[in-house]
Amino acid sequence: MKPGWAGPPPDNPEAVSLAPEASAAGNQAPDAAGALENWPVLSVTESLCPVCLAVLKADIYRRGDEIFLARTCPEHGHFAEAIWRGEPRFEDWRRPKEPAQNVAIHRPAARGCPYDCGLCPEHAQHPCTILLEITDRCNLGCPVCYASSGGQGPGDLDTDTLIGYLKYIRTQAGPVVLQISGGEPTLHPGLPKIIKAASLLFPAVQLNTNGLELATDPSLALELKRAGLSWVFLQFDSLDDETLVRLRGAKLAEVKKAAVDNLEKAGQPTVLVPTVAKGLNDGHLGALVRYALDKPLVRGLHFQPMTQSGRNGLKGSQNRLTLPELLTLLGQQTDGAVDPKSAFPPGCEHERCSFHLRYRRLEGRLIPSPGTVRESSGSCCGPPKTTTTPSRPEETAASRNRAVDIILRSWSPGGLPKTEHSLIPMAARKPDAFDEFIQKAARESFSLTAMAFQDAWTMDLARLRGCCVHVFLPPDRFVPFCAMNLTSADDRALYRP
Amino acid sequence: MAYAFSKFGAEGWSCPKCQQPLQPVEVNVKYMGSSFFVELPGCPTCGTILVDEELAVGRMLEVEKLLEDK
After folding, report:
1. Is residue A92 included in any domain, yes or no?
2. How many structural domains compose chain A?
3. Is A82 helix (H, G, I), strand (E, B) or coil?
4. Full residue range of the structural domain in which residue B30 is found
5. What pTM did the predictor assign?
6. Fewer CB atoms < 10 Å away: N or C end of chain B?
7. 3-class DSSP state of A302
8. Interface A-B: count of C-beta contacts within 8 A
9. Is A480 helix (H, G, I), strand (E, B) or coil?
């Protein structure tokens, strides 16, 4: 039985997203789109049939408090998926920008978006972050894994080959944030050497890990820090073992805490990354924030609402959490310390893909950073233009560099890696109150961010074309993150083997 | 009327209005809801403070960037 993705039958709109046992193709009708005409269409875009992944014209419409992405496949019927619920209102969540392309990495396209990612000329945004997957081995085998890691893949890629890829990525994409990922990258014996090579090529190197090796080997965190690792993205869904069994297949609460402690001892900045599933760990957000605030080198939390891509033992629309719902829960579970109204849409990726909140951390409390009001909607990509002329290479580079700089300030040690904030080197003058203020503000900064990855049910190709987080697909392609991990209703992958 | 600071011999800057050589003075800087004292060149007569290029496009800019978002 397929999970309950299908949209409303024409005569029963209440069934939308509330039918966990419905068949993927079981409640559509060829003329279903007509039933939607009663709902105000906010915009039109392109989406996919979740069954056959065919490109379809799609409507975005409001029904009460919910926003739906709806389309009809001639073969598999009608699908409508809730993509936004509650406040901030969908219509108010705007961040105008003029995307900046990196045409240097574009490749010819035959079939068009999303089938020719590489990137193809339709892609509108430059990368600011590239993932390099160094192994597909994993020591966890989570019931939920968008990368479907731990299967029958090639295992560890050769270290020298990977270093060659790093050089290629630097040449093609420029000085982006480089994420080392997997599989579980700490299983790769060449990891320190890979980090060292990456740190010489890129302004920041991030490690995406489940933390098991870091927890059991206290020397590993220090070794990776010394190799040049900038910060760790640590899978951290809950402090409750029963919840972790559901999401990760094991009682890992103490293991995760040990990983954080070892990273702190090594002086390694860390971002905790919870995958959030409605009804499972969406009530744990406040506890996670409080835990993080007690750890000086935890720079923030990066929430990832669960998607249906890849291996997902919890499949079903009933588990989907939208960004405004996540914001609302954060406010409720922090006694109002998190104000959803102070959340920003992003300026680099598509505006509906993420949010961020900036704070100072003061004695275990969250103090909103002054100036973080949504009205100040500047963008890393510059002010919106009135023309549609392609950006010049220098504009693209400036846009990318600004995005990378802001990422570094959020998550890196002291907020100021590899850059000198004065024209006169610190060594040549006496530090004054400005320096102390900058260092203190950087130390105290704390961020709450979220990224809403797309799957076959929520895929909006306009969002995909605005993506700036790309996975390197050897030997020479760059694939937007959500296209790379995309799988159909019957688990066929678009890009992964 | 706009004034421009000028270099005062080999010793440093002078005040464009009073023609006095600037001297280090303690200035209360307020930003991001915080305030702190820092020593900057200022006119002993009229109190005008010089924020030089090094400070304006260096550390002051850095403070602003701490508030920026992606």
Report:
1. no
2. 2
3. strand
4. 6-65
5. 0.85
6. N
7. strand
8. 76
9. strand
- Determine contact: A427 vs chain B, CB below 8 A: no
Task: Encode chain A (497 residues) as per-residue pLDDT tens digits.
Answer: 232 223 333 333 333 332 223 334 333 433 444 455 578 899 999 999 999 999 999 999 999 999 999 999 999 999 999 999 999 999 999 887 777 888 888 888 899 999 999 999 999 999 999 999 999 999 998 888 888 887 667 899 999 999 999 999 999 999 999 999 999 999 999 999 999 999 999 999 999 999 999 999 999 999 999 999 999 999 999 999 999 999 999 999 999 999 999 999 999 999 999 999 999 999 999 999 999 999 999 999 999 999 988 887 677 767 789 999 999 999 999 999 999 999 989 888 999 999 999 898 888 889 887 655 444 344 444 444 333 445 677 777 888 887 887 788 788 755 444 444 444 444 556 777 888 877 887 788 899 999 999 999 999 999 999 999 999 999 999 999 999 999 999 999 999 88
Which of A380, A422, A441 has the CB atom closest to B58's CB atom?
A422
Close Cβ partners of A164 (under 8 Å, ≥ 6 residues apart):
none
SS3 A214: helix
Task: Say whether the ipTM exceeds 0.90.
Answer: no
We report the CATH number of the domain holding residue B46 as: 3.10.20
Of A267, A243, A239, A265, give the one whose Cα is nearest residue A254.
A239
Q: Does B37 touch chain A if contact means CB atoms closer than 8 Å?
A: yes
Interface touch B67/A437, C-beta < 8 Å: no
Helices A285-293 and A323-333, axial angle in degrees (round to 10): 60
Count of structural domains, chain B: 1
In angstroms, rounded to a whole number, what is the distance separating the alpha carbons of residues B32 and B67?
9
What is the distance in angstroms between the Cα of A424 and the nearest Cα belonging to chain B?
A: 7
Residue A200: C-alpha distances to residues A272, A316, A419 (Å): 25, 43, 14
Query: Does A432 sit within 8 Å of B65, measured CB to CB?
Result: no
What backbone torsions phi and psi does residue A431 show, to the nearest 5 degrees?
A: -60, 140
Give the containing element (helix H, strand E) for A172. helix A159-173
Domain that holds residue A357: 103-368+391-417+436-484
A239-to-A152, A247, A254, A476 alpha-carbon distances in Å: 31, 12, 8, 40
Query: Residue ranges of the alpha helices (H) in A182-248?
Result: 191-201, 212-216, 218-227, 241-248
